[in-house]
Amino acid sequence: MAVSSPARGIPAAHTDGPTTGELLAFAHRAAADPGILGRLPRRPGERTWISLPGPGGAEAWVIGWPPGAETGWHDHGGSRGAFATAAGLLRESSIAVELPTGGRQVLELADDMDRQRELPAGRGRTFGPHHVHQVVNPSRAEHAVSVHVYYPPLPLMRRYTRDGRILRLATTEQSQEW
User: How far apart (Å, rounded) are the C-alpha atoms in residues 97 and 112?
Assistant: First the structure.
């Protein structure tokens, strides 16, 4: 399960561009801007999004989450980032482990690897280049909105399936696919 590899054109570490603190500050500013949030179309039953130019060459997305919407387990192709909830509540499940490189497709997780956090409107978080998570709108009735920022811009996303403690690479999506 390769996370980042210079041989695949994805930098192993990012020392240039905006810091995760700057990405989070941008996410909070955008999440509090009614002009930006008003541009997001909201459709019952489907996630919607609009792109924004982020700080220092980062990419940003405003995402609408209908009740029950979720991302599934994924990573961000070696990009670091941040996100902030503008409306509603999001629940994030993440894995507190750096995934191994070297082409592994399956990883058995230790019992204490799972982390959960709730992000109501006004809260946000940062993450590094090896972050694997899923995000869910747990509400049965309320639409949620969030702002996500990535640097460098997402080169790809890896999607995983999860069966108990087994995390399995399912697919890799290139940026032109989303």
Answer: 10
Question: What CATH superfamily classification does 15-171 receive?
Answer: Jelly Rolls (2.60.120.10)
The CA distances from residue 49 to 59, 111, 123, 160, 164, in Å, are 13, 35, 19, 22, 31
Residues 6 or more apart whose CB falls under 8 angstroms from that of 125 comprise: 24, 82, 83, 84, 92, 117, 119
Say if residues 80 and 49 touch (Cβ distance below 8 Å): no
pLDDT tens digits, 97-142:
777 655 668 888 888 889 999 999 999 999 999 899 999 999 999 9
Domain ranges across the chain: 15-171
Confidence of residue 7 (pLDDT cuts 50, 70, 90): very low
Q: Which residue has the higher pLDDT, 8 or 126?
A: 126
Reduced to 3 states, what is the DSSP secondary structure of residue 27? helix
Nearest C-alpha neighbor of 94 from the set 76, 113, 111 = 113
Beta-bridge mates of residue 126:
82
Token readout for 118 is: 């709730």
